[in-house]
Amino acid sequence: MEPVIKDIKTAEDLKLFTGLAKRLGLKTAKLSDEEKEDVGLAIAINKGRQSGYVSEDNVIDTLRKIQGKK
């Protein structure tokens, strides 16, 4: 199986989503803010690998933006 990450905005939607997942026999887990950032960084790294060269300036700017969101 492959993991799926979904950002759910309301408690009602979370209850509905986790209830459905449970009925389907799927596992759910809540990610911390740090874990969400790690996933985002991993996605960015993979996109960079697929799209070719990423400049050092682009990497530094992205890391600064991430750091500013804390």
Characterize the structure shown.
The chain has 70 residues and is an all-alpha fold. The protein folds into two domains: 1-30; 31-70. Helix content is 64%, strand content 0%. The protein is built from three helices and no strands. 0% of the residues are buried. The model has no long low-confidence stretch (mean pLDDT 87).
Can you give me a brief rundown of this structure?
This protein has 70 residues and is mainly α.
Describe the secondary-structure layout.
Layout: H1 11-23, H2 33-51, H3 56-68
Order of helices and strands: HHH
What is the average per-residue confidence, as pLDDT, rounded to a whole number? 87
Rg over CA atoms, rounded to whole Å, is 16 Å
> Structural class given helices, strands, pairing?
mainly alpha
Question: How many domains comprise the coordinates?
Answer: 2
Poorly predicted ranges (pLDDT <50, ≥5 residues)?
Answer: none
Can you tag this structure with a few keywords?
single chain, 70 residues, mainly alpha, 2 domains, 3 helices, 0% strand, elongated
